[in-house]
Give the backbone structure.
Amino acid sequence: MRAWLEKAGFDPRFTSLVLALALIWVALALATDGIFLTPRNLYNLSIQTCVTALMACGMVYLIVARQIDLSVGSQMAFTGMVIAWVQVEGLGAETPFAWIASIGAGLVAGMLLGAFQGWWTAYRGLPAFVVTLAGYLMFRGAAFLVADGQTLAPLSTTFQRIGGGVHGSIGPQWSWLLGLLACAWVISQAVYARRSRRRYNAAMAPMWAEVVKTLVTCAALLGFVAVVCAYPDPGVDEGVAATGKGIGVPVLILIAVAAVLTIVSQRTRFGRHVFAYGGNPEAAFLSGLPTKRVVLTLFMLMGALAAIAAVITTSRLNSGTHSIGQMAELYVIAATVIGGASFAGGVGTIPGAIVGALLIQSLDNGMVLMDVSSAKRQIFIGLILIGAVWMDNVYTRRMTR
């Protein structure tokens, strides 16, 4: 089917991923007697996916550049503890703007952790696998030492909204407006891309294929808005009619990050340097590209995204604990590889990583609803990671024939 999909203008890997996700959702809905597809569960699934998807966006850049970070969960734990410490022990949780200062401290801490690993990898030539494996141990230990293993709580009430809990969404009106604006943007981009291809006499997909892609994308966007608006906000005052929650704040953060990183990868010099380095590191170095600075920046970016994931997690839990982020490395790497990033370098997309994260989180969420034990879930996700890497190897070999 690959040749037919390419001729019709569809990305074979991404299309296959979306179809696999749809089949998994149908199977989980049947296995859970429809509970999986309820508005409440899908809203919670969207919030849960954001943490994995945010870090998967950074992992795409690293894997494209033939690097890897095994310490993202430990970075998340350390930066989360820094955020909680600044609010609880440092400035006081309800001190005005203390939550903003804590987020800034977490981001700085995340970038410093990334710079530490990036320096050893880029400027001292150590393998990223070894450096980040050491970081996996060190940063988790550092997270414990921030508060001597204690849980820091409660956090700022304003900060708690970032996690998507009570009042942590934008409501139905703003959600529908945002959904309609997103559909208008999708349509305008499709029209613009087709006109640009026609202007330069480039190959174009059939009109029906463009229409189908646009309609499916808009239907998915509006369907998502309808689902999250159908879930009533449990935090409304007593005696007041419940309204739909709408799009959660973590989803908005993910959309913003994904949009920025997609633009960076497609429209900026730095993005071209990353893909050039991943495609052929030796040629990139001999061409004069600042390869060491690129690798250092990528690890700093990964640290910043781990800190943002920590912001969402700590605000949702209303506490900081050194145990958050355990097994996050497995989920993030699995989501990135399933989303189409290749360990051979030079290949990967932000939308693919997000859909991969949604697929992984859907499986985990569905197995929880089916009362599958944590140990069995870990085995299953590990098998999926092996299968994803194997499929990537098969696909790469076929493409190079």
